[in-house]
Amino acid sequence: MNFVPTALEVSATACKTVTINLTHTGSFPRNAMGHNWVLSTTENAQATAQDGWSAGLENQYLKSGDPRVIASTKIIGGGESDSVSFNLSDLNVGGDYTFFCSFVGHFAMMKGKFTIIE
């Protein structure tokens, strides 16, 4: 139960838009062991995940309209994939960002560092 890779580095001068492709390599369905990919500032990551738990699976375990969510995929089950694209212009070079899974209880193990370089 982890992301591979556990850190992502993107060049703001080489890329204007980033696409994250998430594939769930397990076999359990989304309601039993679903995963998603969510990006927020590191400062807000844990609170965003915890606040989302009460939103339920039908809301991807994220509060509706949560401004702390920069980008996110939907919750997927084993063998499924999803993608999200987002613009880097709203993010800061050298900013402190974390990606994580918002499925209940997954935050502790499923997170990584997202870095934007020149």
Automatic annotation (TrEMBL):
<dbReference type="Pfam" id="PF00127">
    <property type="entry name" value="Copper-bind"/>
</dbReference>
<protein>
    <recommendedName>
        <fullName>Azurin</fullName>
    </recommendedName>
</protein>
<keyword id="KW-0574">Periplasm</keyword>
<keyword id="KW-0813">Transport</keyword>
<comment type="function">
    <text>Transfers electrons from cytochrome c551 to cytochrome oxidase.</text>
</comment>
<dbReference type="GO" id="GO:0005507">
    <property type="term" value="F:copper ion binding"/>
</dbReference>
<dbReference type="GO" id="GO:0009055">
    <property type="term" value="F:electron transfer activity"/>
</dbReference>
<dbReference type="InterPro" id="IPR008972">
    <property type="entry name" value="Cupredoxin"/>
</dbReference>
<keyword id="KW-0249">Electron transport</keyword>
<keyword id="KW-0186">Copper</keyword>
<dbReference type="InterPro" id="IPR050845">
    <property type="entry name" value="Cu-binding_ET"/>
</dbReference>
<dbReference type="InterPro" id="IPR000923">
    <property type="entry name" value="BlueCu_1"/>
</dbReference>
<dbReference type="InterPro" id="IPR014068">
    <property type="entry name" value="Azurin"/>
</dbReference>
<keyword id="KW-0479">Metal-binding</keyword>
<dbReference type="GO" id="GO:0042597">
    <property type="term" value="C:periplasmic space"/>
</dbReference>
<feature type="domain" description="Blue (type 1) copper">
    <location>
        <begin position="1"/>
        <end position="116"/>
    </location>
</feature>
